[in-house]
Amino acid sequence: MPEISVVVPVYKVSEYLKRCVDSILAQTYTSFDLILIDDGSPDDCGEICDRYQNADNKVHVIHQENQGLAEARNVGIEWALKNSDSKWITFIDSDDWIHQDYLKLLYETAIKYSVDLSICNCIKTPELNIEEPEVNGNTKIFAPEDFWCFRQYGGAWAKLYKKSHFENIRYPKGLLYEDIFVTYRLIFMQSKVAYIETPLYFYFLRDDSITKSQWNPRVLAQFDGMKQQLEFFKKNNYKRAYEITARNYLLHIKNNTESCKTVKNKYPKEYKKLKRMYKSNLVRFHKLLPIRNNINLYRYGFPWIVKLYKKFTYIKELVGFGK
Hints:
CATH superfamily of the largest domain: Spore Coat Polysaccharide Biosynthesis Protein SpsA, Chain A
Number of strands: 9
CATH architecture of the largest domain: Alpha-Beta Complex
Strand content: 15-25%
Radius of gyration: 22 Å
């Protein structure tokens, strides 16, 4: 009876899929089943998945028409809930790979500290292979808000969840950045979470990834997710989480405005919308993010205010010095 279900959505990753699956099957902890969801991949990923299924009874393959990453994850969740006796679940992206002790350490940490969510550090790398770091054994226990403020770790990956948490939670179908809508809810469901400082998850930075490709309006979905986060934190009086998410929200708008600027002739309405969003939200959060501590945020939205503020500060200092 497997303790852990490992869910891997698969789409157009034939170059990297073997590295991912091999790292899972080489785990030192062996009580797991592996669900590969071939999300209508147009390359030979489906055949690669089938070969793994034929060679190892841990592997279960689901073929479906392309529905996107979120729905592929959902299909994996539903299979694990209905067909596996596992108590835990983890998600791995099919172009990433994991340390040989990934499952072992996440599972043992969860049991040792009696948590329903254990999280590990990760390395983001453009390299195809890197040397696995030595396990240092350092683990920290956080209250959910403390962890969120320590590290807004919003990806679905690099985490081991109690499978029962997904009885009523699914990823929003058809949206980019689907993790933004879900991960914070899973973190704040906990009384405490465990964080392993050793990087056990290797996140591959592909040249054709969403974050490196040309800007397009689909990425605006992330802001709906961050709005939901802000509403949740405000409603539940998580003041520190609200503040750090508000600042992060503004930085995301700023970065997207800069990216959209490079293609503003193609998306003029979206570019203007992002500029308005930035200014209106900077006004909205001005008490939370005072100008003295956030000069760069204000310089981007209201450079004239920064000039006035600096003049006022300079005059104030002169007057103070004169006294």
